[in-house]
Amino acid sequence: MINKISSLFFGSALLFFAGTASALVIYDESASGDLDSVGSTNVNLLAGENVIMGSINATPPADTDRIKFTQTAGLVVDSIILSFAGVWDDANIGQSMNTALFNNVANLFDDNFNSVTSGADITASFFDSFGPETGPLSTTTDGAIWDFQLSAGIVYPAQPWTLTINTTSVSQQVPEPSTFALLGLGLAGLTFVRRKKA
């Protein structure tokens, strides 16, 4: 009986920790090849933390990185964050970098992804309030193709960047810690009752 209980507890612990996986690099420009300005690179999102890494080269000439990522079936996009790793020169880079984020579900562009004014992180708002079409960007559409672009006119030195896309699977229901606590109390109660009867 104790072996069964310990096996059940161990299995439950594995399920819990499986839901807290680490980040997965789905594209690294330095290892997988230079990103072009037309967005010919397309990668699939996975459940969890997806990371795309790139770098805007020192200019001239002007450089543009563009990548598309597909939202596979059963995924919800929870957040998209652009961050920079290099030294940020507000006088040059802040005046000549632009970014865009949209998906093919509607002709909508994320409000927060536009002119870059500092090296601070940019988090997607998933809403477009400008232009002829406005509204929320869909984060739940299976097969949606997201399009991210970062372009610069004057950059020195090169500017490394990271795009982090956090997703969850609608079919993956990870129990909360309180669920495990209740399960543990129930098992302890059953063990106590069985011992009392014996």
TrEMBL record:
Keywords: Signal. It comes from the Bacteria. The keyword Signal applies. InterPro entries: Ice-binding_C. Residues 1-23 form the signal peptide. Pfam families: PEP-CTERM. Residues 173-195 form the Ice-binding protein C-terminal domain. This is Ice-binding protein C-terminal domain-containing protein. It comes from Marinobacter salinus.
